[in-house]
Amino acid sequence: MANAKDFILKGGDLIECDIQEPQISSPFSMTFQRLSLLFSATCVALFGQGLLTSSAVFAETPSEATLPAMVADDSPAADYLEPLAAPSDVWERIRRGFEMPVLQNALVDKWVRHYTKDPNYLNRMFNRSGKYLYHIIEEVEARGMPTELALLPFVESAFQPEALSHAKAAGLWQFMPATGKVYSLEQNLWHDERRDVMESTRAALDYFQYLHGLFHDWQLALAAYNWGEGSVQRAIRRAKSARRPTDYSHLKMPRETANYVPKLEAIKRIVADPKRYGIELPDVGNEPFFVTVSKPRDIDTETAAKLADMPLADFKKLNPSFKLPVIVAAHNNNMLLPADKLDGFVDSLANWMETGQPLSQWRTYKLKSGETLGSVAKQFDMTEAELLEVNKIPKGRKVLANSTLLVKSPNDEHYDIGEDEADARLRLSPLTTWRRVTYRVRSGDTLGRIAHRWHISTKSIRKDNRLRGDMLRVGQRLTLTVPQVERMPVVAVKSRTDSKSAAQIYAVRKGDTLSSIARRYGVSVAALKQDNRLRSNALKIGQRLRIYTKGTTAPHLNYHVVVAGDTLSGIAAKHHTTVVRLKRANHLRGNQLRIGQRLEIPSGSGAVVKVAKAVEQSVPAPSAGDYRVQKGDSLYSIGQKFGVSVTKLREVNGLSNNRLRIGQRLVIPATAKVHPKQRVSSTVATQTRYRVRKGDSLYVIARRFGVSVSSLKKLNHLKSNNLKIGQTLRIK
């Protein structure tokens, strides 16, 4: 049973919170102060001796994006620059950062009229935005990007983070599942980071930086965000072939994309001059609305809302990414709370822990073969309907054996969900789709034989064809509703060297497009094109494509940008390869090169410098040892440390669950890869360094090495996505 000491530790961390600028000396007990210069700071709230204190670290120099504008006076008497006053609210900050070119056309006027004719709709959008705008404008300014981007969620989702489109795009920024995976937005049974306010904003701005680097035009980058980068590139090529302008206003695009930037421009005009359109913007102060709170224990969303003294619906609006009624501590996901609710939350949490009540009433259960949802629901004092609703099980789908279900915890049993349990998945039967076919009755056919052949019932045949009896005649046409069976000619190819790099080979069939193939395998069109070195979206029937699905990674691709004086032989010698391999990898017919051309270096070449190699040292097989549990340990982390599975640890120590206590002694089996008494310093981790080249971006480098943009930024302590040519990055 958890007690107050689990949370209230002398000098220990209780809650970590990121307070957005402008900072204050005591963000939770003092009034927010207005600062003339915007700066960055991070506050860690510590709870000790019954007091909550905070520390703020002030930036010495304001970021370039937040430097106050300077106005020059040309009069003879004045030869100095006078700084503008600090912005009074978020709306003023947004107006000062407008940088995109003004779009003037009839569509913009149309959307201005559309929005302003319904002020109530506008007011609802503006009021919803107040919770999120401060964080978004902070991120936009930190990257030096146009502040018009902070208004884009008005167009995408009307500032509803829980929004889900018919095409399965989700969140404030409406990420599709495949695109979300490319930009490291986790999507699983428990959590969908496409709806996470902070993570989806990070991913959207990463994507926009990549698109702007690709097109060097913000309006085209916006069009690509909506339509797809490949579609915009093809439209530009068609316009060039027809000798037409290639800017946004002149490209031929679908209606939705053609209206996309005009919608944003209409919102921009209203925000720039709301009085002109009879609109009153809500007060959105130049201060953070929410703080981030980490959780050392599992906590129910209902309990968290109760401790923060806020309605559950309001809590979910700030935390729409959590799909189930419990927030699992093993996932290390933070929850958001209004800044003015934090003091009350901390006090209520301490009081709650003193009563000995559990923070979570849920646990996991693995469905066994032969069990039904009804029997499981009865076992845990739930109804089958409640079990279906809690686990978000769609109608018409069967839950397969070994699926992990969330169930109510018995009154006498309360423990946190372990990391291995939290990573488990719900396994559902394939979704059955139906199609109609016409069948001509043959000699010897009966209703029973036809039904058996097509895996349907005789009753459905009678109903579809309005048959009164079982009599059939040869040549009679019957309409059958039969299950749709998807047939895909896929051959798995195993790599001889690394199973993680194994690709699936797909043979293109009639009617296939890159988009349909990408959706089928849960990858992006951009990844398909890069993995198969496709310059366009054109496909030929029978063409074979390499597909790297989840759990497999494409081989690392290194590139060389051609400079003046380069030759194929010189490049081949530099990268320790041959001219033949170089030409084959880049589909070159001749030896001609052009300055700025990007050449793929075949795998096995030395474009990447290894600064340290793993030193393998053979040691005798160790005997069993023991390990004393320390603060922060879990069975999973201990297993990772000594190279042994969680199941094995539980087996040799006679553990019935994953609960541990500080100071507990665990037996480490003799089969562990690392013995407790051995030093692991004899093995030096392999590190890879990469030198930034012209045309590189964090997205391109992350894609090349099979890592995420966020991990690159964390590893290299990068505050933005800006890179300099020649800069050295750590990859792993």
Task: List key phrases describing it.
Membrane-bound Lytic Murein Transglycosylase D, Chain A; disordered N terminus; 3-stranded antiparallel beta sheet; alpha+beta; Lysozyme; globular; 732 residues; single chain; 7 domains
Describe this structure in words.
The N terminus is likely disordered. With 732 residues, this protein is α+β, with helices and mostly antiparallel strands. The radius of gyration is 30 Å and the shape is globular. The chain is 31% helix and 12% strand. Helix 12 crosses helix 13. The chain folds into 7 domains: 128 residues, no CATH class; 188 residues, Lysozyme, CATH 1.10.530.10; 61 residues, LysM domain (Membrane-bound Lytic Murein Transglycosylase D, Chain A); 50 residues, Membrane-bound Lytic Murein Transglycosylase D, Chain A (Roll); 58 residues, LysM domain (Membrane-bound Lytic Murein Transglycosylase D, Chain A), CATH 3.10.350; 51 residues, Membrane-bound Lytic Murein Transglycosylase D, Chain A (Roll); 58 residues, LysM domain (Membrane-bound Lytic Murein Transglycosylase D, Chain A, Roll). The strands form 10 sheets. It has a 3-stranded antiparallel sheet with strand order 13-14-15, with no helix packed on it. Strands 18-21-22 form a 3-stranded antiparallel sheet, with no helix packed on it.
